[in-house]
Amino acid sequence: MSDTGRRSRILQAAIADGLLHPQRAPLAAFMDWERVTSNVQHLMHAFPSHLTTLHAFAVKANSLVPVLTRLRELGMGAEVASNGELTAALRAGFAPERIVFDSPAKSWQELRRALELGVSLNIDNFQELERVRQILSETPSTSEIGIRLNPQVGTGGIAAMSTAGVHSKFGVPLDDPGMREQLIAAYLENPWLRRAHTHVGSQGCPLPLIARGVNELVRFADEVNLRAGFAQVRTLDIGGGLPVDFETDAPIAAFDEYVAELHEGASRLFSGDYAIVTEFGRSILAKHGFIAAYVEYTKQVGGRDIAITHAGAQIATRTVFMPEAWPLRIEGFTESGEAKPTGTAVVQDVAGPCCFAGDLVARGRELPRLVPGDIVTLLDTGAYYASNPFAYNSLPVPGVYGVSMAAGARPEFSVVREAQLDLELTAVATE
Ligand SMILES: Cc1ncc(COP(=O)(O)O)c(C=O)c1O
Question: Probe ligand 1: pick from 199, 277, 278, 381, max atoms within 8 Å of CB?
Answer without folding.
Answer: 199
